[in-house]
Write a structure and sequence with these properties.
By secondary structure, the protein is of the alpha+beta class. It has 2 helices and 6 strands, in the order βββαβαββ. A 6-stranded mixed sheet has the order 1-2-3-6-4-5, with helices on one face. Helix 1 (about 35-50) runs parallel beside helix 2 (about 75-85).
């Protein structure tokens, strides 16, 4: 299996391709002072940009794990999520966590080339 790493940061490669799978590391919003809806929109836009670097788009995302610091607050995230993906909704799990360094939400996802 061929492994390719893209968009290196000091602590991770934002995108790693392993065979037909493309993994996008945890993303938080650029402005963590916003509420969960705008943070979600910013993160999803960033993820789509990272996937664009390897020739994919949002429709290639097959699974996501979403970490939130306020599970009831995810009601603000859900409409942003469904609007962004339309009919190409990936599977997802939403996990409540105690802290994300001030952010309200972090998203990790897997895309497929196949």
């Amino acid at each position: 299996m061929t492994i390719k790493r893209h968009i290196k940061t000091p602590i991770q490669n934002r995108v790693v391709e392993a065979g037909n799978l493309v993994f996008v590391g945890g993303c938080i919003a650029d402005d963590i002072t916003q509420s969960m809806g705008p943070q979600t929109q910013n993160i999803l836009t960033k993820i789509e940009g990272y996937l664009g670097e390897v020739g994919l788009d949002r429709k290639a995302i097959v699974a996501a794990t979403i970490f939130v610091t306020d599970l009831p607050g995810k009601k603000e995230m859900d409409p942003v999520w469904t609007s962004f993906f339309g009919d190409a909704l990936p599977t997802r799990a939403t996990v409540g966590v105690a802290d994300l360094g001030g952010a309200l939400i972090e998203i990790v996802c897997t895309a497929s080339r196949g």
